[in-house]
Design brief:
The complex is a heterotrimer.
Chain A: E1 4-12, E2 17-26, E3 31-35, H1 42-50, E4 57-62, E5 65-66, E6 77-80, H2 92-102, H3 107-121, H4 136-148, E7 154-158, H5 166-183, E8 186-191, H6 194-200, E9 203-208, E10 211-216, H7 218-223, H8 228-233, E11 240-249, E12 252-257, E13 260-263, H9 266-272, E14 279-284, E15 289-291, E16 301-311, E17 316-322, E18 325-331, E19 342-347, E20 353-356
Parallel strand pairs in A: 3-8, 3-9, 6-7, 7-8
Antiparallel strand pairs in A: 1-2, 1-4, 4-5, 9-10, 11-12, 11-14, 12-13, 14-20, 15-19, 16-17, 16-19, 17-18
Chain B: H1 6-40, H2 59-65, H3 68-100, H4 106-118, H5 121-132, H6 141-155, H7 159-187, H8 190-199, H9 203-240, H10 250-261, H11 264-272, H12 274-294
Helix pairs in contact in B: 3-7, 3-9, 4-7, 5-7, 5-9, 7-9, 8-9, 9-12, 10-11
Chain C: H1 6-34, H2 38-43, H3 55-61, E1 63-65, E2 75-77, H4 81-113, H5 118-126, H6 137-146, H7 153-178, H8 181-190, H9 194-205, H10 207-223, H11 226-231, H12 240-246, H13 254-286
Antiparallel strand pairs in C: 1-2
Helix pairs in contact in C: 1-13, 3-13, 4-5, 4-7, 4-10, 5-7, 7-10, 7-13, 8-9, 10-13
Classes of the chains: A alpha+beta, B mainly alpha, C mainly alpha.
The complex binds adenosine-5'-triphosphate and magnesium ion.
Magnesium ion (MG) binds at residues 42-43, 158 of chain A.
C-alpha cells in the first residue's frame, strides 16, 4: 500500500511535449482515474509511473521512494494493458505465476496465490488454457489476475476495458470497483470514457494536451467544472454552450443573445458583474433543462423549436433551436414532442455555468 | 528536439551491439568481394596473361555495346527472367489460392507443393535433367531424345537444355512463391474478404480488386527473390552440364568468360550489369512494403 | 452457402491432382531410378520399379580395403560417404544455428530497439541480394584463404548464413516490429530483466517465426551446389553435394543419384515436420501485431 506523488512531471518526445508540469498526489488506497481525449498524455503519464517511459523532468514518488531511476521491476507495481499483453505461449496459470516465479516465491505459495486470485475472478476452470483459447472478457480477467497475485503497492490500468463490448464493459467495471474495495490497493486508472471515470474513481483527473485541467471527486467535476473543457467533457450528452452578452437591465444582470435571454442567478451575478457588457459563454447541462410549466419564472425560461427527437427509452433527447442557438435538452419519456413543435424550456437557476471567453475558466 | 534520455541511449547502444555480428558477417563475406568485382571490372585482370593488371577504365563495359554475344546474352536473360517470373507468379498464385481454403487432404497437397522448394536443388536438378535428358539408353530415352531433337531443330542446338533449365527454375520457384503467397493470403484479415464477398458477386472481380492489391508486396517479394535465385540455379545447371550451355544468359556468360577464357575483367563487368536492374526491382519492393511498415496502427 | 455442384468438386479435385503430380513427379522419377538395377534401368518401364534394390545406396557405403603401409590406415572407403553425411549435417545444423542466432539478434535490434534509421539498416541488409552470385566465389576464395579457412567446412559456415541472413533479418525484424510492445513491458513490470524477458517470453512466443526462418535457411543452404564444390576440395572434407559433384560421378551413375537423395531425406523430413509452422511463421511475420 502506498501513495504516489508526481511533481512537475514532464515528458517530451522528439516533436511532442506529451505531459506538461503534472502535479498529482495520489493517496494510499485511493482509486484515481486519469481521463481525457485521445492523445492527451494519460498513457504517457501512467507509463512514467510504471517506469516504461523515461521522465524528461520532474519526480515520481511511490511510497516514500523516489523511483525516477528505478527499473519497472523494482517499483512494486502491476499493470493491466488495453490489449491484455498476456504471454501467448503460456497457460493462464503460468501467465499469472510468472511474476511470482521471477521473484522466487516458493512453489506452494505461488499455487496458493494464483488459486486465490483465480477464485476471486472466477477463472479457476481456465487455468490450463492458453490465452488464445479465451474470450475477450476472460483474457481481461486473467490480465487482472496477473496483476493482483503479487499484492503490489500500486495497480496501473491503461484502458483495460476498452476492448470489451458495451455490456461486458459495464459488468467488468463493477467487478473492478468491487475488487478495489476488497484489496484496497492504490490504483491509477486511465480511460477516455468519462462514464468509467465517474463511476470508478475516488477522484478523477481530467487532462488535455498534456495539462491537468482539474482534479476532483466525480460529483465535484460535474457540479463545479473548473473550465469550459472539463464542463464539456464530463457529462453525457455534453453541456450546451451559448455565447451571450452580460447586460444590465433595471439593476439586474442578464445573459442575452438573439433568441435567448435569461436572468443571471443571484449567486453568480456578483462574479459576473465584472463582465458587464462583455461576451461570455453560458453553459447549461441538457439534464438541467425541462419543459417550462406554470411555476417556472419567466426570467429563467426561453422559447425553442424542436429540430430532432431522440427517444432513448428512459429519457428523450431533444435537439432544439433557440433563435440561432442549438440546444440539447434531456426530458422525461412522457413528454410528447414532435418535429417543429414550439416548446418553452425552463432551467435550474442554481445550475447554470458561465465561462470566460478568453481563459475559458469558470466564472 | 530533446536529447534522447540515458535509457534510450543505452537501448541504442545495445541495438548496435546486437546488429554488429550480422553486419560483420555480411561485410566479411560480401564487402571485399563486391569491391573486388567492381575494381576488377575496371581492369584487364586475367590469370592467363603474364603482364601486370592494368587499369582500363570503362573499357570492359564499353566493349559490350558492340558485342553481339553480349546483346544475345542480354536478350536471353530478359526472356529467361520474364518467362520464369511470370510463370512462377502465375503458378504460385494458383497454388496459394488452391490451398487458401480448407478441404479434405489439404495438408498432403500442401506438402506436395512445398516439396520442390524444400528438396535440395542440387538434387532435384538432377532429377529434372534425368527426366528431360536421359543419360543412358533407358526405356524412355527415345521419346525424350525425339522431343529434344524437335526442339533443338526448331530453335537451334541447346534449346532443349535451356528449356529444361527454365522448367526446373519454374518448378522450384513456383513452389517457393506459392508458399509465400499462401502465407500472405493468411495474413490478410478475413474481414476484408468478407467485405469483398458482400461487395461483389463475381469471384474474378474480387480476386482482381481485393486479393491482388493486398498481395502485391508479397508478389513483389517473390519475384525479387526468384530473380536472384534464377541465376544461382543456372550455375547449378552449368556445373551439371559441364558447360554445354548454348543459350547463355548474362550470368552463365560471365561464368564462361572466367572459366574458359580467364577474362576476369569483362566477366566482372558483365555480371555487374545486372545490379542496376535488380536495384530497381528492390526499390519497387521497398516502396510496396513501406506503407505496410510505416502505419502499424 | 449451397453445396457445390459435382462438376465444381471434380474440377477442384483434378486441379489438386495436377498440382500434386507436377510438384512430386520429378522427385518420384528420380527415386524410382535410384532403386533400379542397371538392367531394369535400361529395359524396364521408366515410371515404376519392378525389383527395387538398394544396391546403389549400398555402393555408397561400401568399404574397399586398400592396404597402405600402416595398419591403422588400412581401411578406406571408396567414397567417404559417411564423412560427407556427417559434414553435411554439421553444415546444415551449424548454418541454421548461426543464421538464427545472428539473425534474431539483428532483427530484435532493428525491429524492437529501433536505432536511428533502422529501416535503412534493414534495407541495406536486404540489398545484399542484388550482389550477383556468379563470380563471387573468386574474391570469396581470397577472403577464405586470408582467414585460413580454405578447404575447411568453416568456410561454408561463414558463407551460407550470409545467403539466408538478409531474408531472415527482414522477416524477423518485421515480426518483432509488429509484436505488441506491451507483452515485453508486462514481463519487465512482473520482475524480469530485459534479457530474461527476451529469453523467457519473446523467444518462446516467436517459435513459429523462428521455425520459418530456420526452414528458409535450411532450404537455401541445402540447395547450394556451387559454393560447396568450389570451396571444399579434399574428399574427406566435402559435403554430399560437393563430393558427388567433384569425383568422377558422371550423371549416369546411379550411385550419385542415390547419394543425393540420401541428402534430401533429412532436409525433406525436417521441412515436412515444420511445413505448417513455416507458413504460420511467414504469416506471423506479415501480419501486423501477430
Ligand atoms: N513513443 C512516442 N514517440 C513520440 N510521440 C509519442 C510517443 N508516445 C506517445 N506520443 C505522443 O504523446 C502524446 C500523448 O500520448 P499518450 O499515449 O499519452 O496519449 P493518451 O492520452 O494515452 O491517448 P489515447 O487515449 O489515444 O491512448 C500523443 O500526442 C502521442 O502522439
Ligand atoms: Mg493511451
Amino acid at each position: 500500500m502506498a501513495q504516489v506523488m508526481m511533481k512537475d512531471l514532464n515528458k517530451k518526445y522528439d516533436e511532442v511535449h506529451a505531459v506538461k508540469d503534472v502535479n498529482l498526489h495520489i493517496r494510499d488506497k485511493e482509486f484515481v482515474v486519469l481521463v481525457g481525449p485521445s492523445g492527451c498524455g494519460k498513457s504517457t503519464t501512467l507509463r512514467m509511473v510504471a517506469g516504461l517511459e523515461e521522465i524528461t523532468a520532474g519526480e515520481i514518488t511511490i511510497g516514500d521512494r523516489i523511483v525516477n531511476d528505478l527499473p519497472p521491476k523494482d517499483r512494486d507495481i502491476a499493470m493491466v494493458f488495453q490489449n491484455y499483453a498476456l504471454y501467448p505461449h503460456m497457460t493462464v496459470y503460468d501467465n499469472m505465476a510468472f511474476g511470482l516465479k521471477m521473484r522466487k516465491f516458493p512453489k506452494p505459495e505461488i499455487a496458493k496465490r494464483v488459486g486465490d486470485a483465480a477464485e476471486i475472478l472466477g477463472i479457476q476452470e481456465l487455468l490450463k488454457r492458453k490465452p488464445r483459447q479465451l474470450s475477450g472478457g476472460q483474457r481481461q480477467r486473467v490480465a487482472v489476475g496477473r496483476a493482483i497475485v503479487r499484492h503490489p503497492q500500486v495497480f496501473l490500468f491503461d484502458e483495460p476495458l476498452s476492448n470489451l463490448d458495451a455490456k461486458l464493459r459495464v459488468q467488468m467495471r463493477v467487478e473492478l470497483k468491487r475488487l478495489h474495495d476488497r484489496l484496497e490497493t492504490t490504483a491509477i486508472y486511465v480511460t477516455h470514457d468519462q462514464v468509467e471515470a465517474m463511476t470508478l474513481g475516488d477522484r478523477v483527473v481530467v487532462m488535455k494536451d498534456g495539462w491537468i485541467q482539474q482534479v476532483g471527486e466525480p460529483l465535484e467535476l460535474y457540479g463545479k467544472p473548473a473550465n469550459r473543457f472539463v464542463a464539456g467533457f464530463i457529462g453525457s450528452p455534453s453541456m450546451n454552450f451559448v455565447e451571450v452578452t452580460a447586460t444590465e437591465t433595471n439593476g439586474a444582470l442578464w445573459a442575452d443573445t438573439p433568441g435567448l435571454r435569461v436572468k443571471v442567478p443571484p449567486a453568480l451575478a456578483g462574479r459576473l458583474g465584472a463582465y458587464k457588457g462583455q461576451r461570455v459563454t453560458l453553459g447549461i447541462r441538457p439534464e438541467d433543462l425541462r419543459i417550462a410549466s406554470g411555476n417556472d419564472a419567466a426570467d429563467y425560461s426561453f422559447d425553442t423549436v424542436v429540430e430532432v427527437v431522440e427517444p432513448l427509452g428512459s429519457e428523450i433527447l431533444l435537439d432544439l433551436k433557440a433563435g440561432p442557438n442549438v440546444i440539447v435538452a434531456r426530458v422525461d419519456p412522457t413528454v410528447r414532442a414532435k418535429l417543429h413543435d414550439k416548446l418553452r424550456l425552463g432551467l435550474h437557476p442554481e445550475r447554470v455555468h458561465f465561462f470566460d471567453n478568453k481563459t475559458e475558466l469558470a466564472i | 528536439m530533446s536529447l534522447p534520455g540515458s535509457a534510450r541511449r543505452r537501448e541504442i547502444r545495445l541495438a548496435y551491439l546486437l546488429l554488429s555480428p550480422a553486419l560483420l558477417l555480411l561485410l566479411t563475406v560480401l564487402a571485399y568481394p563486391i569491391g573486388w568485382e567492381l575494381w576488377t571490372s575496371l581492369t584487364d585482370l586475367s590469370p592467363l596473361s603474364d603482364g601486370p593488371q592494368a587499369f582500363v577504365g570503362f573499357e570492359n563495359y564499353r566493349r559490350f555495346l558492340g558485342d553481339a554475344e553480349f546483346w544475345r546474352a542480354a536478350a536471353v536473360t530478359v526472356v529467361y527472367a520474364a518467362v520464369t517470373s511470370v510463370a512462377k507468379l502465375a503458378l504460385g498464385l494458383g497454388f496459394a489460392l488452391l490451398l487458401a481454403r480448407p478441404f479434405r487432404g489439404r495438408a498432403l497437397v500442401f506438402l506436395a507443393i512445398f516439396l520442390p522448394w524444400a528438396y535440395p536443388a542440387g538434387v532435384s536438378v538432377i532429377g529434372w535433367y534425368w527426366t528431360l535428358n536421359p543419360p543412358t539408353r533407358t526405356a524412355y530415352a527415345p521419346f525424350m531424345g525425339h522431343l529434344k531433337y524437335v526442339v533443338d531443330g526448331a530453335f537451334g542446338g541447346g534449346a532443349w537444355a535451356f528449356v529444361s533449365v527454365i522448367l526446373f527454375n519454374i518448378w522450384r520457384g513456383s513452389s517457393f512463391i506459392g508458399v509465400l503467397l499462401l502465407a500472405g493470403i493468411n495474413a490478410i484479415p478475413p474481414e476484408l474478404f468478407e467485405c469483398a464477398l458482400l461487395e461483389s458477386k463475381s469471384a474474378w472481380r474480387r480476386f482482381h480488386l481485393v486479393t491482388v492489391p493486398l498481395l502485391k508486396p508479397f508478389l513483389a517479394l517473390g519475384v525479387f527473390l526468384s530473380l536472384t535465385s534464377a541465376f544461382a540455379d543456372l550455375a547449378n545447371v552449368w556445373l551439371l552440364t559441364a558447360g554445354r550451355i548454348v543459350f547463355p544468359v548474362i550470368g552463365t556468360h560471365a561464368y564462361w568468360l572466367v572459366i574458359k577464357a580467364g577474362q576476369y575483367g569483362p566477366a566482372s563487368a558483365l555480371s555487374l550489369t545486372l545490379v542496376p536492374f535488380l536495384l530497381v526491382v528492390l526499390l519497387v519492393l521497398f516502396r510496396l512494403f513501406d506503407p505496410w511498415e510505416e502505419n502499424p496502427a | 452457402m449451397n453445396p457445390k455442384p459435382w462438376w465444381a468438386k471434380l474440377g477442384h479435385g483434378s486441379l489438386m491432382l495436377l498440382a500434386t503430380v507436377y510438384c512430386v513427379f520429378p522427385i518420384y522419377f528420380m527415386l524410382v531410378q535410384s532403386l533400379k538395377t542397371p538392367e531394369e534401368d535400361v529395359f524396364g518401364n521408366p515410371f515404376i520399379v519392378m525389383n527395387p534394390t538398394l544396391e546403389n545406396f549400398e555402393e555408397l557405403f561400401e568399404r574397399k580395403s586398400e592396404v597402405r603401409g600402416f595398419v591403422g590406415d588400412a581401411l578406406r572407403r571408396s567414397y567417404p560417404f559417411l564423412d560427407w553425411l556427417a559434414n553435411t549435417l554439421f553444415i546444415f545444423v551449424g548454418s541454421v544455428a548461426a543464421t538464427l542466432v545472428i539473425g534474431v539478434a539483428a532483427a530484435y535490434a532493428l525491429g524492437r530497439l529501433r536505432p536511428p534509421g533502422f529501416r535503412w539498416w534493414r534495407r541495406a541488409i536486404f540489398a545484399a541480394y542484388v550482389i550477383p552470385q556468379t563470380l563471387l566465389f573468386i574474391p570469396l576464395y581470397q577472403v577464405v584463404i586470408t582467414l585460413g579457412l580454405d578447404d575447411s567446412l568453416l568456410a561454408l559456415l561463414l558463407i551460407y548464413p550470409t545467403m539466408a541472413l538478409p531474408f531472415c533479418v527482414w522477416m524477423l525484424s518485421a515480426y518483432f516490429q509488429h509484436l505488441p510492445r506491451e507483452i515485453e513491458e508486462a514481463a519487465l513490470i512482473e520482475g524480469a530483466s530485459r534479457a530474461t524477458a527476451f529469453f523467457r517470453i519473446i523467444l518462446p512466443m516467436s517459435r513459429p517465426v523462428l521455425v520459418a526462418a530456420g526452414i528458409f535457411t535450411l532450404g537455401t543452404v541445402a540447395s547450394d551446389f556451387m559454393i560447396a564444390s568450389v570451396f571444399l576440395l579434399t574428399p574427406n572434407n566435402q559435403t554430399i553435394t560437393a563430393g558427388l559433384g567433384t569425383f568422377d560421378v558422371a550423371l549416369d551413375e546411379l550411385a550419385a543419384v542415390a547419394g543425393v537423395n540420401l541428402l534430401a531425406i533429412p532436409v525433406v523430413t525436417i521441412s515436412a515436420v515444420f511445413a505448417r509452422g513455416y507458413v504460420r511463421g511467414l504469416t506471423a511475420a506479415m501480419v501486423e501485431g501477430a
